[in-house]
Design brief:
single chain
């Protein structure tokens, strides 16, 4: 290459690089102007908590007293299945697979 060609290539590269830097600065300035011009609006994800109305039911838990047992109203019931479920036992979640879809037995070594 001749020295004139290298100067021309260098000049073109420098012009392209400076144009790209100037475009980046302009884009950053436009973005900053848009950010400063907008009014900051915050979205609220959930509704603010509201005080629940006082309950008028009589089955509210009793007041706790220090050193005493833990009062509960009504008394908790244990989780027991009904008698019919106990006599039937556990049912299979899925029906048995058809014979053609079952694998052959594994040979013992």
């Amino acid at each position: 290459m001749a020295p004139d060609d290298t100067k021309r290539a260098y000049r073109n590269d420098l012009l392209l690089a400076s144009t790209m830097v100037a475009a980046g600065i302009v884009m950053a300035g436009v973005a900053l102007m848009q950010l400063s011009s907008r009014s900051p609006v915050m979205a609220q994800a959930t509704q603010p908590l509201q005080a629940s109305p006082p309950s008028t039911q009589d089955n509210a838990p009793a007041e706790s007293k220090p050193g005493g047992e833990r009062p509960t109203t009504p008394a908790p019931e244990p989780a027991r299945p009904d008698t019919q479920a106990q006599t039937q036992g556990v049912k299979a979640a899925l029906p048995p697979a058809p014979a053609e879809k079952m694998a052959p037995p594994i040979d013992q070594k």
